[in-house]
Each structure stands twice: as C-alpha cells, then as structure tokens.
Amino acid sequence: MKKLLVIALSAITLTGCSLTQPIPVKGEVVSCADIKTVASEGAVLDCLDGSQGVAADSIVGPALINVWGTWCAPCRQELPHFAHYIAKQGSVPIIGIAVEEKNMAVVRKFVESNGMSWPILYDSDGSTRGKFGMGVPVTWFIDASGKVVHKKYGPFNSLEEIELSVIKYLGVK
C-alpha cells in the first residue's frame, strides 16, 4: 500500500511539473505582411521572409516589439515563453527585430530551430540602435496609436509575466 502511495504521489508531482514548462513549438519564418503600420519616414528594416520591410517607428498596435539577437543568452531564455504565448493564441502580436547579426541566413536558421513563429525584422546596419538602445532583450509595448506605453528591459521569465504585462500596459486580455 505504501509503495502504491509513493508511485501515485510521484506521478502527480511529475505531471504537475510538466504543466509549467513552455509548450515546444516548431519555428517558422513568418511574413511581415500582417504587421499594422502607418506612414513613416523611418529606416525600413528587411523582413526575414523576403517580403516588404517595415520601419520600426511605423508599427501600431496593440503590439509587442521584441529586440533580440541569436548571440544573446537572455534573449534565448525568453524565447520559449514568447513561443508559448503565440501558441496559446496570444491577444497581442509579437514582432521581433534581430540586431547585430552576421546575415539573414543565420537568423532564419535560428528562428526555425528555436520555435519562433512571429514576424522578424532584420536590422542589417544597426539603424534601430538610436531608437531601441544597445541592450537586448528589450520589449516595447505599442498601443493602437503607435505610442510606446512601456519598455521592458531584460528577459521575460514566464508566459504569465507576458500575459500580465499585456493586460497591465495595453489593457488587452
């Protein structure tokens, strides 16, 4: 009887722990065609899928702009949480901006092998450095008018942190 109780408790513990882990998601290069924008004079960033690029300052939301790099350990740490958010049909789109990368091929391969499935813009010449700064990861919360309502420096540590931040700063559930 005691063995049965130990086995049952172990199974419950293992099952419970697995529910807190992000859902693995297959990565894919996604078109930038659905990014909401307004007219802008800003520098246009290339889209990873080869479609028409977008100026970062033309993006309107609600949206999250996540600036990251393949070489950045904290950026890689938060990727599963963003992937889980997207897989759960998160209410606010994520737009990534890859910075300080050797070339688009490196970024494409990284996206596909790391569960990323949201549009990625490619900053080939560092033109966003003046707007976003040099530290990554940084995530900007953009409201419907295109205004930056919050900047999160550092990685998100959970799906719940992303969801609560979206509610808090963008008022979207």
TrEMBL record:
<dbReference type="InterPro" id="IPR017937">
    <property type="entry name" value="Thioredoxin_CS"/>
</dbReference>
<keyword id="KW-0201">Cytochrome c-type biogenesis</keyword>
<dbReference type="GO" id="GO:0017004">
    <property type="term" value="P:cytochrome complex assembly"/>
</dbReference>
<dbReference type="InterPro" id="IPR000866">
    <property type="entry name" value="AhpC/TSA"/>
</dbReference>
<dbReference type="InterPro" id="IPR036249">
    <property type="entry name" value="Thioredoxin-like_sf"/>
</dbReference>
<feature type="signal peptide">
    <location>
        <begin position="1"/>
        <end position="20"/>
    </location>
</feature>
<keyword id="KW-0676">Redox-active center</keyword>
<dbReference type="GO" id="GO:0030313">
    <property type="term" value="C:cell envelope"/>
</dbReference>
<dbReference type="Pfam" id="PF00578">
    <property type="entry name" value="AhpC-TSA"/>
</dbReference>
<keyword id="KW-0812">Transmembrane</keyword>
<dbReference type="GO" id="GO:0016491">
    <property type="term" value="F:oxidoreductase activity"/>
</dbReference>
<feature type="domain" description="Thioredoxin">
    <location>
        <begin position="33"/>
        <end position="172"/>
    </location>
</feature>
<keyword id="KW-0735">Signal-anchor</keyword>
<keyword id="KW-0732">Signal</keyword>
<protein>
    <submittedName>
        <fullName>Thiol-disulfide isomerase</fullName>
    </submittedName>
</protein>
<dbReference type="InterPro" id="IPR013766">
    <property type="entry name" value="Thioredoxin_domain"/>
</dbReference>
<keyword id="KW-1015">Disulfide bond</keyword>
<dbReference type="GO" id="GO:0016853">
    <property type="term" value="F:isomerase activity"/>
</dbReference>
<dbReference type="InterPro" id="IPR050553">
    <property type="entry name" value="Thioredoxin_ResA/DsbE_sf"/>
</dbReference>
<keyword id="KW-0413">Isomerase</keyword>
<dbReference type="GO" id="GO:0016209">
    <property type="term" value="F:antioxidant activity"/>
</dbReference>
